[in-house]
Amino acid sequence: MIGPFAFQVIWDEQYIEMLAGLSRDKDAYWDVFHYLEAFYPSYHVDFVFNPQNYLLKELLEAKGAELEPEQQKMVLGTPVLEADTSGVAAYTEQYAKQYFAIHNKDLYWIGERVAAARDRFRTLLAIHQGKVVGYLDVTCCFEENEPFDLFVLEQYRRMGYGRKLLAKALEWNQPKGMMLLVDVDNEPAIRLYASMGFAKVQGQNNLTAHWLVPECH
Q1: What is the mean pLDDT of residues 110-139?
Q2: CA dist., res. 144 & res. 76, Å (int)
Q3: Are the C-beta atoms of residues 33 and 63 closer than 8 Å to each other?
Q4: What angle do CA 164, 109, 76 make, to 5 degrees?
Q5: How far apart are CA 23 and CA 29, in angstroms?
Q6: Beta strands in the chain (DSSP E)
Q7: I need a surface site. Which of 14, 30, 44, 116 has the fewest CB within 10 A?
Q8: Is the per-residue pLDDT at 125 higher than 70?
Q9: Among candidate residues 28, 6, 66, the one with its CA nearest the CA of residue 207
Q10: Contacts of 38 (CB under 8 A, 6+ apart)
Q11: Which phi and psi (to 5°) does residue 48 adopt?
């Protein structure tokens, strides 16, 4: 055996996520890609991996995959729980249309999918005078959950909504642990997370890549 690999396949959506992939043998990665090309043409595949895995990174680049910026891993130590959470509410169908409209469309987990996956996610909304101005999707089914997607409309930033959303998520998540990934150059977000009790973890940064498996010819 030259490398274990595990993938989650969602057949009806033609989507695959690599859950685990580890090998020091270049042939192992080529074999995996040949397998995906043979059996899953036209599927979208997401890879999350350590930047030091240059074998996978070089192969993804050669295959024309889209690589996102490197992300810093942070882990929750002592959470800051006594924070103002006014203006934050749990997602309900009343706000579905507004939430979907501002949600990030570049992820597999778009707003509609998150709202339908209540066994995996909870969603918090920042509401200003009846208008949804931000949201936080956070996982809820793991021993170490993750603030998966945090967003506030530009005109409502620097008003404390990001901190309020995160504070409410920490309150909900007790007593479980929490980790997150944030772009290494996103200093405002890193400062926010640090102020809420998160600390950087050295040597465990991640890269995310998106690859469209080519059609068979």
Answers
A1: 96
A2: 9
A3: yes
A4: 40
A5: 8
A6: 5-10, 15-21, 44-49, 66-67, 71-76, 88-90, 121-128, 131-139, 144-145, 147-152, 177-183, 198-200, 207-212
A7: 116
A8: yes
A9: 66
A10: 216
A11: -125, 120
SS3 138: strand
Is residue 18 within 8 Å of 181, Cβ to Cβ?
no
Instruction: In whole angstroms, give the CA distance from residue 74 to residue 10.
Output: 29
Across-strand partners of 10? 15
Q: What are the pLDDT digits (tens) for 54-99?
A: 999 999 999 999 999 999 999 999 888 778 899 999 999 999 999 9
Contact 23, 29 (CB under 8 A): yes
Half-sphere exposure of 56 (CA within 13 A, CB side): 24
pTM of the model: 0.77
- Whether the pLDDT of residue 138 is over 70: the answer is yes
Residue 3 DSSP one-character state? -
Give which of 124, 138, 118 is closest to 180, Cα–Cα. 138
